[in-house]
Amino acid sequence: MVMLDIPKAELHVHIEGTMEPEMVFELARRNDVELPYSSVAELRSRYEFSDLQSFLDIYYANMAVLRTRRDFRELTAAYLRESARQGVRHAEIFFDPQAHLARGVEMPAIVDGLSEGITEGITEGAGSGVTAELILCFLRDQSAESAMDTLRLAEPFLDRIIGVGLDSAEVGHPPSKFTEVFDRARELGLRAVAHAGEEGPAEYVREALDLLRVERVDHGIRALDDPELVDRLRREQVPLTVCPLSNVRLGSFSHLSQHTLPRLMAEGLMVTINSDDPAYFGGYAGENFSAVREHLGLTREQLRQVAANSVQASFLDRERKSALLAEVDAWTE
Ligand code: ADE
Ligand code: ZN
Questions:
Q1: Closest by Cα among 50, 253, 277, 314 to 168
Q2: pLDDT tens-digit profile of 168-181?
Q3: What confidence category does residue 1 fall into, taking pLDDT thresholds of 50, 70 and 90?
């Protein structure tokens, strides 16, 4: 597929959203978890979403099969192997600890499993040039107190967590609710990102920048409703981690050809392309690049710029960024 393997960083992927239906069944069997579906095909047939909440309902339900350190390890290793086949050279991976803690899975099993999965994925498949980091996301439809408790539980593991994020049901759960917990995260030396302007208003993007002081905005597509905000995003070159296939599958656009990614780029914004929850939305990072090329007519050079943006917007150090940018530059189809 065209553009599939251009070297890039993936900055917006939820590890739980990389669990393919086959793995849902495999882990259910191994962990003795009963599923309300009788086959992989039946589960896959439920992946018709009308909005974010309709997706989140099934996403959280499927997570029930993730129980052990080994499960988190295998999930992460599988993601890194597949994404590396699609050109991902560096991944900053979200995880949702609150969803697992609620089922009695403890923080060490989660973080140890995810970190072991990164090591395994790199040594057994992805290749030694690949790197990955973890970003702990707070569920915004839960309380600020719960987020703060979760951050406290994560403190012994901060050597393996690069930053915090904010995800789950957006509308009615503004970033302002989490100002204090993001302040604390920053005190602990963590980087900050947040989902904003996916389904929620442009005002949430402003709050994420002003109150949570995020370094990237995840999605951010609704920023286009607010010309002043667009000016600011351009001026400050705030990276947006756009997820084209996700936006179509969750109903923000009726078809990929209607996506506003070309407009975001024409406005001079720092756009990146990512997969979000690839097992649910029909494509990993490379497949998102290919689909955009096919349906939005972006040129190879425009997509090379998007790939370079992903490296610039990552939390990698200067040296590694330069090396990766050289790879993007040298890439030919
Ligand atoms: N959790 C997993 N995927 C998400 C998305 N697209 N938006 C908000 N929360 C999520
Ligand atoms: Zn997301």
A1: 277
A2: 999 999 999 999 99
A3: confident
Cβ neighbours for 210, distance < 8 A, ≥ 6 positions apart: none
Contacts of 37 (CB under 8 A, 6+ apart): 43, 46
Pick from 141, 143, 198, 142: nearest CA to 172? 141
What is the reported pLDDT for 105?
98
Task: Tell the residue nearest (CA) to atom 1 of ligand 1.
Answer: 168
pLDDT in tens, 43-60: 999 999 999 999 999 999
Work out whether strand 88-95 and strand 8-14 pair parallel, antiparallel, or are unpaired. Answer: parallel
278 closest CA partner among 7, 23, 1, 30: 23
Residue 200 in contact with ligand 1 by CB distance below 6 A? no
pLDDT confidence of residue 2: 79
Q: Which of 198, 199, 207, 287 is catalytic?
A: 198
Nearest CA to ligand 1 atom 10: 168
Domain boundaries, the chain: 8-330
Check if the beta carbon of residue 68 is closer than 8 Å to that of residue 113.
Answer: yes
Distance 50 CA to ligand 1 centre (A): 14
Q: How many CA atoms lie within 13 A of 273 on its CB side?
A: 36
Q: Which residues surround ligand 2, an ion (CB under 5 A)?
A: 276
Catalytic: 198? Answer: yes
Best mutation site among 47, 135, 168 for ligand 1, i.e. most ligand atoms within 8 A of its Cβ? 168
Q: How far apart are alpha carbons 183 and 331 in whole angstroms?
A: 40
Angle between the N-to-C axes of helices 107-121 and 69-85, in degrees from 0 to 180, rounded to the nearest 10:
30
pTM over 0.90: yes
Out of 3.90.1150.10, 3.90.1200.10, 3.20.20.140, 3.30.300.20, select the CATH number for domain 8-330. 3.20.20.140
